[in-house]
Amino acid sequence: MSPKIDPRILDVRIQHRRHNEVLAELNGLIAVAKSYGGAIIPLLGPTRCGKTEVLEDAKTQFGNVRSGPGSLIETNSFAVGCIPPKPNDRDIYLTMLRAVGHGCAPREKTSAVRERLITAIRDDGIEILALDECSHCVETGANLSPRTAVDHFKSLVDATGIVLVLGGLPKFQKLIMGNEQVRDRSLKTIEYHPYRWTREEDVDAFVGAFLATLEILQEAGLRIEFDELDMARRIYGASGGRVGMMLRIMKASLFQAKEGTLTFDAIARGWELGLQGNGDVEPFFASEEPSDTALVRSYAAVMQEADLKIAPATLDEFEAARLVPLSK
Question: Domain boundaries in the chain?
Fold first, then answer.
């Protein structure tokens, strides 16, 4: 049965501190990249942290809408695309070409697609091109070598002077560091990490984002029947401190809401049904509230899965390190 509250109501931008910090950092690096006549800006972090939302907001805030010479069609100087799974050489250029609003013939050669892209960037005044899911280039099954993938990005910057923002998982950093020419064309990597439970300002920011989500649901007429701060703690553990994952859990829970009421059990069931692998993690929705150690361990697990190192800074983090290594 479909919920009375459409889950798409949460397809909104929840403003929170880390999102705004990353967006501001990206804006500053774009200005530097433009002054260099083009550069690569890596934007990396664990899945469901909010990188995609940053790129979408950056396009809205930093792009200029205009018409190219002799064209009535408006274009944005900031384009956003997404690298598909298992890409080949042609896929990379075709993704970028579609991102700037152009297409090509089905069997057009890679070299021709590249030339179309370069022409479109110049004619339409594209200054910034952001690509999400760039880590697909380094995953098993990709139909090109990692070095070839980044060579395509480097050559496009050289040919057009564009600012190329590359979003993806942290493993993409190894690809950048493994190619001297790409590394020399790259500015500082922007790291988008989850909120850390042992930092008070991080806890406040995550809880604020969760409470803002509840306000949206209440304004839509949904009744909330649980302790909001207790649930914020449990949702932190279930999401590993990621606002994007928190929103995914909340959307899934709306399918369990009955009679216009969102309950503790509805969120617990939404988390159970909406995410893979919950049987192997802490019982964040048990009768007893999760311990601080369990919440720290959740954050550490997300960082470890993303191959990111963190150094234990508190007794809770040292305790969590017994089960989840916090540093490699």
Answer: 36-191, 195-320
